[in-house]
């Protein structure tokens, strides 16, 4: 299979790297992948960030958002509490704090990011970047092996959550990217590999934040 330089691979299909619209417009144009994410952005009150600011966004797919809400409901049900039926029952600040982990001011394409080797972080540690909410995250490009030769295979972006800043290379929670360098008019999108990612990087983080902030009533 071949493609021209203008074409862009999107999983098993071909997709244009450039998109004539904002990041939010792009996400809305892909409801199968991102309609729950769009609702989360709206619930966070962050539409303007995705419409007007220049950002790099590591986009978690629908199943990441779905799993987070499902696990929250499982916890609420287990403790005899009313469950969530609408995203707006989860406080905006909870959505905003979680989503901000995936947003970085400015544009960072794959070519702009240093190498990471998750098995050899001392040699190739990636680099720390401040997220939109101010938390330090690690971003790197993983160089896969090919034909038994190290680092000559395809390159894959990895976004990593740092649990312990006193040991920033220990226990990283890695979120590999499925599709990188999608370029709307106000930045770049890197779509996360949804099958292995938990929204907010740890299910308990999101559950604890949502419950601590208080769950609203469905009719509010």
Question: Secondary structure elements and their pairing?
Answer:
Blueprint: E1 9-10, E2 13-14, H1 23-28, H2 31-44, H3 47-52, E3 55-59, H4 62-78, H5 92-100, E4 103-105, E5 115-116, E6 127-130, E7 136-143, E8 155-161, E9 173-182, E10 187-192, H6 203-213
Helix pairs in contact: 2-4, 2-5, 4-6
Gyration radius over CA? 18 Å
Average of pLDDT: 91
Measured as a percent range, the helix fraction is 25-40%
Indicate the structural class: alpha+beta
* SSE string: EEHHHEHHEEEEEEEH
Q: If you had to describe this structure to a student in words, what would you say it looks like?
A:
The chain is built from 6 helices and 10 strands, in the order ββαααβααβββββββα. The chain has helices spanning 23-28, 31-44, 47-52, 62-78, 92-100, 203-213; strands at 9-10, 13-14, 55-59, 103-105, 115-116, 127-130, 136-143, 155-161, 173-182, 187-192. The strands form 2 sheets. Strands 3, 4, 5, 6, 7, 8, 9 and 10 form an 8-stranded mixed β-sheet that branches. Strands 1-2 form a two-stranded antiparallel sheet. β1 and β2 (13-14) form a beta hairpin. α2 crosses α4 (62-78), α2 packs across α5 and α4 (62-78) packs across α6. It is globular.
